């Protein structure tokens, strides 16, 4: 059974730090004032890339993350956060479609709230997430593909093939990580763009094709495990 640790809010005497990643200025300022009046410390970001920067420097207790962000969207930000942290994430979306809710929860979000919403409900959800005990980080965070003697150390961001470190670009690392994590499932080119590139806007599917080709070369014989799914994308078999 995994061990747990109290949230950082408990360690600070009860004041929760909430990172609000929202591009709507009026909503961001309104929610910031609401959080402050509720005794919480609010920190802000107006786009996905800035959100990751603030996340890295503030260690928030809860992240409130809008899906429709510029630069990096909410899906990309959530994926990056989950590479390194189990911090509770509450996703906001202008739509209440069931498949978006399911996708968010399956991607690692802890809660989901559709706009428009009441501030009392938002505060109640944030307080519940801030009280939740956090899972203690494991001694290692290794993903292995035994048949290829491939090992990924997620926390150290190192891939090893037969015990030797691979020299991967950030895009190649994130491509490999996505394929290993979703081994057996075909990932579309659009999914891989969102997961591996910092700013996928304007990037065509050929960019994924050539990045996968380079990754296969670096993997040598193990590169054959990356299977092309015609007209769709790739999967690790």
From TrEMBL:
Listed Gene3D superfamilies: 3.40.50.2300, 6.10.250.690, Winged helix-like DNA-binding domain superfamily/Winged helix DNA-binding domain
Name of the protein described by the UniProt record: Unannotated protein
Domain OmpR/PhoB-type positions: 140-237
Residue span, Response regulatory domain: 17-130
GO CC terms: cytosol; protein-DNA complex
GO molecular function, one term: phosphorelay response regulator activity
GO terms for biological process, alphabetical: regulation of DNA-templated transcription
UniProt cross-references to Pfam families, sorted A to Z: Response_reg, Trans_reg_C
Keywords: DNA-binding, Transcription, Transcription regulation
Signal peptide, first to last residue: none
């Amino acid at each position: 059974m995994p061990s747990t640790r109290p949230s950082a809010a408990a360690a600070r005497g009860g004041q929760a730090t909430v990172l609000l990643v929202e591009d709507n200025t009026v909503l961001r300022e309104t929610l910031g004032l609401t959080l402050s009046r509720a005794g919480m410390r609010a920190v802000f970001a107006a786009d996905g890339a800035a959100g990751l920067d603030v996340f890295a420097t503030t260690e928030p207790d809860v992240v409130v993350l809008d899906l429709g962000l510029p630069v990096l969207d909410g899906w990309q930000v959530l994926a990056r956060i989950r590479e390194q942290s189990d911090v509770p994430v509450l996703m906001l979306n202008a739509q209440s479609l069931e498949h978006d809710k399911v996708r968010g929860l399956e991607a690692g979000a802890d809660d989901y709230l559709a706009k428009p919403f009441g501030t009392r409900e938002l505060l109640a959800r944030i307080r519940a997430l801030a009280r939740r005990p956090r899972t203690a980080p494991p001694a290692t965070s290794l993903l292995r593909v035994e048949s290829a003697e491939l090992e990924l150390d997620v926390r150290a961001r190192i891939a090893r093939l037969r015990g030797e470190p691979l020299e991967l670009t950030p895009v190649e690392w994130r491509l490999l990580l996505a394929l290993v994590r979703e081994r057996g499932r075909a990932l579309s080119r659009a999914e891989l763009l969102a997961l591996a590139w910092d700013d996928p806007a304007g990037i065509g599917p050929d960019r994924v094709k050539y990045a996968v080709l380079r990754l296969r070369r670096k993997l040598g014989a193990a590169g054959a495990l990356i299977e092309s799914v015609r007209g769709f994308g790739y999967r690790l078999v």
